[in-house]
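One-letter codes give the sequence; the fold follows as tokens. An example follows:
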Amino acid sequence: MADALAARVEREKREAAGHGECLASNSRARCRVQELAADYGAALVAAGGGKPATPPSPATRQLVEDLCSGVRRSDRTGCMVIIRTPIEAGIKGARMLARQLRKARRAVELDGTFAVIVDVDARVAESFNEAIDRDMPGSRMAMARWRDPAATEPLRVTLYTDLADLPCILILCEKGKMGDSFPASFRYYDLRLRYTAQCGSRAALEQDLGRACRYRPASEYERRRYPLPTIMLSREAAEVGVYSAAYLGGEAGGDEEECGRLGIGFGVLDMPRQRSSLWP
């Protein structure tokens, strides 16, 4: 994905220069969003049993396979994937990514497998509930009964934690601030669109990583059901993140060959049970 993105940005730079212009940062950000959407689209084709024209990155393929595995469970529960879009892409970039993901899902006949939710002003506009009803009809009633088998009304989603066990991709555009909590089903944290030019501030990166940290589940069943989140990083962020993980006493896992080829870090920032944040 990194090579395709670099080639696209270089091509658009040449085209802009030919018109006496420069490629603005928001245009580069939109290119990154489109390339990530294409990677997810290829992974969805593979998950649907097809053969994509361009193979997806191994990390994205594993993520999508886990995301779609809920259809094989009797209760249809699944995991949450969070994608943080770059600031430069803005709200339009986040919504564009959501449209492309829904289009790719529909093309491979996987509608109803997972929801795609964008949080821009979702908790004000009720679009959490609207997105779930559109993408997975009947799921809010099932979500209510996961919590209370005697429930007679659909669950009204107002917080991120209300999305527990719902298979979904949650796209955050400058949301998910410190203090917000995510459910135990939060499995993948895709930060590949951020920190792609440089990652000069370790503090900013650690703050982003901190949103994926939580207590290790106490029981063996919970540890199997709710593995700690896998964090996917750009190459620039991964270089800083490895040092941060070592400093914080966690474990940063990853495939070095894959990181070099794809420009991502694929691994778990595995914090000790006694710690509830990134700070010692």
